[in-house]
Amino acid sequence: MISFPPCKINLGLNVISKRSDGYHNLETCFYPLPLTDALEILPTDTLSFNLSGNAIPGDAADNLCLKAYKLLQKDFDLKPVAIFLHKVIPSGAGLGGGSSDGAHTLRLLNNLFKLNLTTEKLKSYALQLGSDCPFFIEDKPMLGTGRGEVLTEIDVNLHGKFLVLVKPDIHVSTAEAYGGVLPAVPLTRIREILETQSVAAWKDVLINDFEKSVFAKHPLIGAIRQQLYQCGALYASMSGSGSSVFGIFEKPVDLKSQFGDHFYWGNML
Description:
This protein is of the alpha+beta class. About 25% of the residues lie in helices and about 30% in strands. The protein folds into 2 domains: about 1-155, 2-Layer Sandwich (Ribosomal Protein S5, domain 2); about 160-269, GHMP kinase, C-terminal domain (Alpha-Beta Plaits, 2-Layer Sandwich).
């Protein structure tokens, strides 16, 4: 069985408060993009994990695809599988590629072994893999609150817009990003902005709280966002805690030559 795990961007990201469990309460809109990895799972005699495409830092044994298999194996008598992951989504980019791979592994295993897990049950397993993993169980725009795992549908549609994604060779650690943010309740909530205002009006009101400190430490990321605006983007922002930056355009543009050796992707939504 094969699946194509998508990445996501964050339309706005507010860090609301610090929690007693060490996490933060957030408010963000997760929006899926048609930039995907490729994931195939086949029955076999011995559990294996096979990676192609972009390299993934760290030990392969810690990959979320394997963790997803072992998580379900605790509750179900799963036979061994061969997992083949072709990695296209850049890592450490604030795009949730690893989380998507883990969530889609749960989905494929559910179908392959006919576990009959409901969407909500799959989300509960996904949450054990990571705070943004539950979003990828359904792959549709969602408002995320709590740690990002409390998901509610939101009326936002970028269909017909052109999106450019640029990722420089910079790694921003999650701890570094949170360390530069002072939690606060925003004046205008993300749902109100997205459901009542046009994309062209988002520039000054739809904020990613991580940008201020990340741009200060990594000026190149901020410069990319500014360059996207100079090229005509209706809205541009860093995704998640970075380091990727996206720009939303009214019509197709080809800016690849302007962003040198950075990872570049452009596509109609």
